[in-house]
Specification:
Structural class: alpha/beta
CATH superfamily of the largest domain: Periplasmic binding protein-like II
Shape: globular
Helix content: 40-55%
Strand content: 5-15%
Number of domains: 2
Low-confidence stretches: 1-22
Number of strands: 11
CATH class of the largest domain: Alpha Beta
Oligomer: single chain
Number of helices: 18
Distance between the termini: 77 Å
Largest sheet: 5 strands, mixed
Amino acid sequence: MTRIKSFHAATAMALVVASGAFADTTVTIATVNNGDMIRMQRLAPEFEAQNPDIRLEWVTLEENVLRQRVTQDIAANGGQFDVMTIGTYEVPIWGQQGWLVSLDDMPEVWDADDLLPAIRDGLTIDGALYAAPFYGESSMVMYRTDLMEKAGLEIPDAPSWDFIKQAAAAMTDTDNGTYGICLRGKAGWGENMAFLTAMANSFGARWFDEDWQPELNGPEWTAAVNFYMDLMTQHGPPGASTNGFNENLSLFQQGKCGMWIDATVAASFVTDPDDSTVADTVGFALAPDTGLGRRGNWLWAWSLAVPAGSDATQEAKTFIQWATSKDYTALVAAKEGWANVPPGTRSSLYENPEYQAAAPWADMTLNSINAADPTDPSVKPVPYTGVQFVAIPEFAGIATQVGQEISAALAGQQSVKEALDKAQALTLDEMEAAGY
């Protein structure tokens, strides 16, 4: 009798498996803890309802940690993730290595031709698309209109760094916990060095001359970093050496920053009345310049890609199609309003009158994205591509070390000269070891 029961139980189990009840595929997604990705995770049950055979598993990490984890996994072909959130720096390098799966077979309805050329070009190798942009960005000035008015100043649409310094001084009110400016200070090639590289471009600085010789302790970098240090030490918040994008966003939303120069994607967060105490008094301006012909704005996209080590390639592509589609944009608009849709990826969004009405920063974002030129980022010619990064494999490690030196200077542990001399020496060593 026991044997018969066991036989029937085993047969029933086999039938269940054959019916597909246990055939779900898990897609593991590594993503960054930025607001738009948190929203994507919150809306993901809509995808799972449409695709009941796919289960999503999320690994949500702080920016520096995410970069470290996905880099280690993909270089080792570890297969830990099926979808990776990566940036415009990684895609061409990893695609050339054969580490990413091409997305050229995305269905026609996804409409690859609708992607903004400046964003799509950065994700394309030899005509093939290797990542789908979730949101794209440049950078700009976000400022408190009430504090600017109180200071008796009127910010131009295209301000200079000298104006920014003047305004930061006038808007600082430490007795009331208001600081004239908030900028990235947290060490990381995609944290403080993204901001500082874009800023340094506008001072005429470059990472390398045309013979790949580093110039980090040259006069242009020295001028840019000293200017940054003066801004931050005189008019910035305490503890700035640990502040990255999310920390400064929180400070601005709490009304503690007169100005914040950072990613254009932040516009919807600083103007969201549910999260920002200053939502009704935020204005926008282009990233500053020094009159040399370049502004301190960058070009970036957080994109979704499938690593070659994934064993759920097709299911991963199905998720990416959903998350980067026009339908997803419409879903966010329906749930949370047009102002909160992922920006900077599709031409159709900027042609949409509902979005234009809800996002007064839309044209400035688009113009900033289109103005950034990865092939000609600084005043002088460069041998590399990239606006706020250098598109070589060695850059992430080098710039992280350089960022640590500058962050240490911001924390008062060394001088700017000491930081830049160390940066120059370590960059020389790394580049020589790499054969440049």
